[in-house]
Amino acid sequence: MLDAIQFSSFAEFIDMGGYGFNVWSVYALFAVFIAINLIMPLRKKEKIIRQLKRRALIDAEIQNEDSTEQ
Amino acid sequence: MWLWFSKLGSPKWFYELSGRWLPWLIGAMVIFMTVGLVWGLLFLPPDYQQGFTSRILIVHVAVAGTSLAFFPLMFVAGTITLVWRMKLADMVAKNAAILGAWFSFVTLATGSLWGSVMWGTWWEWTDSRLVSMLFQLFLLLGVISLRSALEDSEAAAKACALLSIVGCINVVIIKYSVEWWNTLHQVSSPVSLDNDSPNGPEFWIATLIMIIAVYLFLSVSLILSTRNEILERERRSQWVQDLALKS
């Protein structure tokens, strides 16, 4: 199976038959595109959950204060 | 059927169901993406005319083909929103526009990087395929700005549904542009079982794997952002508060 690899050296792999810049730019852009559109929503979710938690804790505290005052 | 439909529209139900699906979708996406990229980068033989730039095409074709799915999806979601008042469909439509703009941009950029060496030009205003794809990008940016201008109102949903009709017509134009106006962009090579043909199994199977990988990525990304939207819109409901405290 390894015989089917089209390149005999790493330098050849990078060079892509002279089209290295274009081929690697496309794959880099594709990787960035995938990463951004998966990481951004995941980070946003963490942020939302953090905010919801904080809000819930504040609410609970206010309720506690109310009950101790009475 | 109606019970099922109204259940499907419930954000809570969707949140729970998609939470169970996500690990499988992500797993499948990783597998197809890895196979597609390794095959594409290491094993794909050079094209007799294009050399190794054919490696660009498996990514370009997969992203470009998938980008045509967004306007039909937004049209269906918009119709469901307007006819059955399903909030969930509106959330999907909103996030689909953003992801669709990304897809259109990557299609244009990867195409440009291929064209710059194979056509000798980055861009050609007289080519119908290129211009109609650019129009799709602008249309999606229009939908996004319209939504942010009109907030969550019904007017936004209506305007976006209307724009997605235009978008769907444009999708047909993009699809057939290479046959109707024969300018620069080549027609798709016929799928062939002969390994010596320009689009033999070695090439189209690699492309097919990338297409499946990209569709899986689309689903995962769209589900993730829709789930965020649900949490934000339903933040006052008990189940979201419970969920936040549990995690």
Written account of the structure:
Chain A has a domain of 32 residues. By secondary structure, chain A is mainly alpha-helical. Chain A has 2 helices and no strands. Chain A is rod-shaped, with a radius of gyration of 26 Å. The longest helix of chain A has 50 residues. Chain B has 247 residues and is mainly alpha-helical. Chain B has one domain. Helix content of chain B is 79%, strand content 0%. Chain B is built from 9 helices and no strands. In chain B, helix 3 packs across helix 8, helix 4 runs antiparallel to helix 7 and helix 5 runs antiparallel to helix 8. Chain B is globular. The mean pLDDT of chain B is 88. Chains A and B meet through helix 2 of A and helix 2, helix 3, helix 5, helix 8 and helix 9 of B.
SSE blueprint:
The complex is a heterodimer of chains A (70) and B (247).
Chain A: H1 10-15, H2 20-69
Chain B: H1 2-9, H2 11-43, H3 54-67, H4 70-84, H5 87-118, H6 128-150, H7 154-180, H8 201-233, H9 238-246
Helix pairs in contact in B: 2-8, 3-5, 3-8, 4-5, 4-7, 5-6, 5-8, 6-7
Could you give a short description of this structure?
The complex is a heterodimer of chains A (70) and B (247). With 70 residues, chain A is mostly helical. Chain A has two helices and no strands.
Report the end-to-end length of chain B measured between terminal Cα atoms. 34 Å
- What structural category characterises the helix and strand content of chain B? mainly alpha
Largest interface: A-B, 30 and 41 residues
Which parts of chain A are unreliable, with pLDDT below 50 for 5 consecutive residues or more? none
Query: Count of DSSP E strands of chain A?
Result: 0
Overall mean pLDDT of chain B stands at 88
Structural class of chain A: mainly alpha
Terminal Cα span of chain A: 78 Å
Largest sheet of chain B: none
- Assess the beta-strand content of chain A as a share of residues: under 5%
